[in-house]
Please model this.
Amino acid sequence: MTALRQCIIEELERVPEDKLHIIMQFIGTLTDETGGEKKRYNLEQFVMPPTERGQDADAYVRELRNNDRL
Model:
């Protein structure tokens, strides 16, 4: 075991147990085997198909404003 590794182990022994998960997450990012590529998310799953009202939104808003004035 190298001196650096020995020093790191000694430091880890002083870390409170409830904080070790943070260190594990950091080590996980350092040893990530994906080559550091970011995850890609499919944002299309959050897009709603257009509706009749959505295609003519300006007219719908005008209608709401006009009906507001009695």
User: Anything to note?
Assistant: The first helix runs from residue 3 to 14.
